[in-house]
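Example protein as discussed:

>
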Amino acid sequence: MSSAEQRSASTTLQIISIVTFTFALFLAIGAMLPVLPGFVSHGLGFDALVAGVVIGSQYMATLVMRPLAGRLADTHGPKQAVVYGLWAMGGGGLMLLLSTSLSGLTWLSVSLLLISRLAIGFAQALMGVGTASWGIARVGVENTAQVISWNGIVCYGAIALGAPLGVFMADHAGLWSLGVGTVLLAGLGLLLARSKPAVEIVQGARMAFHAVLGRVLPYGMCVALGSIGFGTIATFITLYYASLGWADPAWCLTVFSVTFAGARVAFSGMVNRFGGFPVAITCLLVESIGLLLLWLAPSPAVALVGAGLTGAGLSLVYPALGVEAVLRIPASSRSAALGAYALFFDLAMGVAGPLMGAIAAHSGYASIFLAAALMSAIGFVVCLALQRWTRRRHEELPLD
């Protein structure tokens, strides 16, 4: 192995050692996704809109928490942000355990579940920003793309494993086991974090969050429009399958996650080779096609193909546009940039639940995938326009 290959392998191992915390969180999240919508709708007797609000509240909590998470990571260090996130994750698991154990008291149960989702959302904000910033600080800003990509790979890889695992645990042990499992994963994460060295806090002036947000806004808009598709699948695929009398909806989440992670591993070099905009534009087009297949699916097999295309399409949108966005922010405010950029993903996930729940209540579950496909197509158009605007602006800059 050459010295360059050794350095590359060492960098990858350092990144993986940090994003392990992300894996633990999303393994728990993945286990909940195919189970909790049915628990709210069928177990507790609430309608699709309530199920969407409860499940989507996690992402709204993450959305609200991102600015604080970025500021905390910049000023106190990304390791501390991850530790706080693990404590929030453990609290969310405990509330889930209580909620599923008190299902006979429907309003108390759904209230406890809502608290659990909020706590998990706080954990996602803190750990998402913390692990990304921690990883970049460990391996250097020149490896930002690799850190963002690996963070996403373990996210969706964990969901791919967690979805069928959650169904198995719920079927064989009961819903309470998901809460216990989440608490145990958080505890293991806290033990592992103790042995990991912190990184030096970057000194310098901190940009106001609204200024950071303004710089990443154009890129984040495209990410939000594309991410609605995942929010729709994550929240409603179980109820969509049930409305058609199909079995095993967890496999849709698994296929989505496998193609997402696989595409990131196989094509992550495309961003550096072709540029962020061409990659994002192509991916949004593929995602739109996948969501249209889900809308028209006559069988579970076609639905799986649609989920796979959606996952593959969405895979590189975030890193392709995120690298350019983050590199336009000073290092002293890097965590704030990561948090601001991630806000748009959180916004999409938070909006997807209540918005698609309302559409499903009015027009049926199939229609939500048509709506998500249209939003992804709008993202395609916006990204194309942004590419042309950026090129024109670059051409108009005076030469030195």
In short: Residues 395-400 have pLDDT under 50 and may be disordered. The CA atoms of residues 85 and 123 lie 4 Å apart. The chain has 15 helices and no strands.
